[in-house]
Design goal:
single chain; 52 residues; mainly alpha; 2 helices; 79% helix; 0% strand
């Protein structure tokens, strides 16, 4: 699983590639996948912190 920080950078890069827009279905689908993965990574990282 990629870290939340790495996924955040991928999301930012996607927005830049799209010129600040997610104008195609492909870009929107990739964005959705990245955001879901980012949310899971944030949860996992938070659980790790709480368990420590």
């Amino acid at each position: 699983m990629r870290s939340a920080a790495v996924l955040n950078e991928a999301i930012r890069a996607l927005w830049q590639r799209g010129g600040g827009r997610l104008g195609t279905a492909e870009l929107r689908a990739e964005y959705e996948r990245l955001v879901v993965a980012w949310a899971a990574a944030v949860q996992a990282e938070q659980a790790t912190v709480e368990a420590a």
